[in-house]
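Exercise 7.
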Amino acid sequence: MEDEAVNLKILSRYLEDKYAVIPAATGNAAMEIIRSERQTLSLVLLDLNLPDLHGMDILRRLNADPEYARLPVIVMTSDSEAELQCLTLGAIDFIPKPYPKKEIVLARIRRIVELSEDRDLLRWTERDHLTGLYNKDFFYRYAAMLDDYHKDLKTDVLVLDVHRFRIINDRFGKACGDRVLQRIAEQALDLVRNAGGIVCRNEADRFFIYCPHRSDHASVLEKLSAGVNGADEDGIRVHLRMGVYSEADKSLDIERRFDRAKMAAESVKGSITNAVGIYDHSMYEAEHLAQRLIGDFPAAVREKQFMAYFQPKFNVAGDRPELCSAEALARWKHPDMGLISPGLFIPVFEQNGLVQALDHFIWKEAAAEVRRLRDALGVRLPVSVNVSRIDLEDPALIGRLTDILGENGLEPGDLILEITESVYSEDPEQIVKAAASLRRLGFCFEMDDFGSGYSSLSMLSSLPIDVLKLDMQFVRTSFANPRAACLLEAMIKMADSLGVPCIAEGVETREQAEALKKMGCAIIQGYYFSRPLPAEEYRLFAAEHIDGRHKL
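Solution. The predicted structure, written as tokens, is:
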């Protein structure tokens, strides 16, 4: 930027052998060039005395805009008094007027360009390319520096992510998803500017914030959400959730502190009413137990610590209840902890894929028990077994199931495949495809936990299911609430009209059983008839409840 023709000619001659030079005689013309060429410019040479804009004003504009702030600026001036103010406004060096020798000018320009390129390279490696935030490695390094410089400062560790972000990408496109992430980054940066601290994008839609301790986390999340949704340029609503490890223990390394905040975020996953999870010690204990269960899993399989229990199901449609089948349930007899509730180990194994090996074990045990009962009592009592999402995504599933049936001389109808409705909801297209293939071979499907919170009655008409299994808690609470009881009856009648019989699990009293029968529920499972039984006890129970009418 130089309005004097002689100076412009001198500089151009100095530079044109090594650089592509773009001249501008006015400040406004220069700003237009910078706007259009900002991605390729390496350096700005700025004369302070331009006819329309003063060089100081141009420096202010460049320094205030993040898109231009990375551009290095060398000021060309004979006014030594202006140097301090120029440096304050972002200038990086000076070339005095009249210009020194060509070699001196080129040496200064080369040094500034190299420094700028090194700075850009460093920024490229330390920053997330989409949002401009720190990446995780640099973020952890700067968090450690904050701890070193502020040893007595109480700090909070925050994890921020988007509820069902994948749906935004799938429905509106990746470009829209990227804009959402950029808006979140802007709001998070505003937060740390005002409150202190640093922020990074860790992965996908997850952001880490390390900041001085505060107690208004709910209002912080509310402000972040309002800022992200305020633009509303894409016509979508973004639902954020936050995990908080408050007053973090600085004796833990920074990664472990964020692990605790992630636990807190996971504690509110799926919650409609609560979007802020606060870490407490019980989460640590649960995580510690989960890690032990995962570590003990190989030995449990090898030493056959897992067992299949069987809970009988009764058909109540006739004059008297008749044993018609059972559900196979996994139990773990741990050598140190005794009998572990499946409510503890099943969710842990579902999260890391170990549930597939457990499923295979239970399928084999269930098939063997069906065969033993047939040989001992001359009856065919099918057993339902759980099939997880990871099982249905396994291309070897059909071969695995048919092998198990073949080893025991059974037919597909002897193993009923039970899938929770949440699995259908997560990837209905894939699940429908897999289930349809198995049904063509003669397998039957039960939808488990219907009414647990994901329910859509339209699922009954579109999904390949043969039996609807009503959620245990939904069944139990319905009898204490007349309106819920009406809904329960309506669900049973709707399923019946579609030719899908219902199973009610968790039935504990005669009154519940009689009410369900009156509503039209065909099959009942629960402690009213029997608790889950080890294989030997189930065989005895079956022998007591089978008569000649059921024998083959």
